[in-house]
Amino acid sequence: MQAFWKGTVQIAKLQVPIKLYAATEEKTVSFRQQHRACSHAIAYQKYCAHCETAVEPAEVGKAYDLGGGQFIEIEESELKLLAPASDKTFYIEHFVRSADIEPYYMKKHYFIGMDEVGEQAFRVLHAGLFKLKRTGIGYITLRSVQQLAALWATKEGLMLTTLHYADEVRPALSAGSPAAGPFAQPELLEAFGSLVSGMSVPFDPTEYRNVYQEAVKRLIDAKIAHRIPNGPHPAPVAEDGENLVDFLSAVERSLAHIGQEPVPKTDKKAKRAKAAK
């Protein structure tokens, strides 16, 4: 695996040389667009509707839309002057508790590898962050774009994760999520806890398949073999009454479905009598 970025992590006066490797890659089957009549690829050309003419790359500029049909032109040379001075240093500004970073702030993950020098500093950085459960937050320039990023440790090694800025994350309440607070129905939590426990297993990502991509590949293989592929598997039909309003009843049916004992009914009168004593 080839590193796509080499540089240093700078923490105050401490510098640790590192390499970055993409932690994930897309496995989506890609298609090209082509002309049905001749099977040749479709080419796209920039076109100005006002001048009714094709536009060459050298004639294309950038502009910011002010609204009302007004624009401010921005030159590429002006944007380059705003770029960070260094694109080879990951500057750590602060350390935060790792548990305080919500997953929706995370964008893309990278494995961090050791450089040819600085092995001791690298190992201290990994062991220290892992033991303290802290994550470094700072700025790094990747592909000429400055990004907010997190430096954190797993059992296997160090990771860098690019982050969304605060104004890029929408408020949860705007999506209809309830405000955080105490839940006043413990019997429902107990029932749901039983369901979660019954369905809990060690995480193994190889257990989960990309069923759609597998079907696409089967379709392609079938086309290559000049035969008609098998049809899609029928979607499971929900039994009558699956769409229950009563949460507790739904959980009990779910427990029965996975072979777990239902949650015993709570005798509220007995609880009150016990509390009175």
From TrEMBL:
Q: Which UniProt keywords apply?
A: DNA-binding
Q: Quote the InterPro entries the UniProt record gives.
A: DNA_bd_Ku70/Ku80 (IPR006164), Prok_Ku (IPR009187), SPOC-like_C_dom_sf (IPR016194)
Annotated SMART domains: Ku78
**Example of a GO biological process term:** double-strand break repair via nonhomologous end joining
Extract the GO molecular function terms from the UniProt entry: double-stranded DNA binding
Q: Name one Pfam family in it.
A: Ku
- Quick check: keyword DNA-binding in the entry? yes
Q: Where is the Ku domain?
A: 52-179
Entry superkingdom:
Bacteria
Q: Does the keyword DNA-binding apply?
A: yes
Q: Name the Gene3D superfamilies on file.
A: 2.40.290.10
Q: What is this protein called?
A: Ku protein
